[in-house]
Amino acid sequence: MREEAYRHYFSKASRLCAQKEKCEQDIRTKLSQWELSSEEADKIIDELKSADFINHQRYAAAFALDKLRFNHWGRRKISYALRNKGIGEQSIQEALDSLPEEYYENVLREELDKKLQSIKDEKTTKKRNKLCNYLLQKGFESGKVFELVDNKLSGLNN
């Protein structure tokens, strides 16, 4: 690739990274759409990493907070999504650890209350199963889910 073309694609990729956090997989996909060879893409990605445009730790933290805040995902679903984007375990764990615990618990309770309102007059066992399944699908940890659901339902039955 000519230096002029390389600079053009590097500039486009760096602008993408500057607008919003991107991981290596996101940029690699974009470079592939621009029909760059894997060698050219590797060179651009290496330069983006060395210029700190691509930083997986920073990306993972932003991704985790966004998914909690906007999608109301739990830690398990966030972790799974980050793994699928090729983020390393250490970066994932640091991102999950950085989530504000009180906010996380509030989101979990809000999701429980929202789902509880949508379940009409069903037996407690069936209601419990629906609530637990819903929260587990959102990626919340099973221990927290079962404890919260049981506490909520026992409070309703008293």
Descriptive notes:
- By secondary structure, this protein is mainly α.
- The chain folds into three domains: 48 residues; 42 residues; 57 residues.
- Helix content is 78%, strand content 0%.
- Helix 2 crosses helix 3 and helix 8 runs antiparallel to helix 9.
- The radius of gyration is 21 Å and the shape is elongated.
- The mean pLDDT is 95.
Overview in brief:
By secondary structure, this protein is mostly helical.
Annotation field: number of helices: 9
Overall SS class: mainly alpha
Which shape, going by the Cα principal axes? elongated
Q: What low-confidence regions span 5 or more consecutive residues with pLDDT below 50?
A: none
Into how many domains do the coordinates divide? Answer: 3
Mean pLDDT: 95
Helix-strand layout with pairing:
Blueprint: H1 3-19, H2 24-33, H3 38-50, H4 56-71, H5 75-84, H6 89-97, H7 101-118, H8 124-137, H9 142-157
Task: Considering the chains and any ligands shown, give keywords for the structure.
single chain, 158 residues, mainly alpha, 9 helices
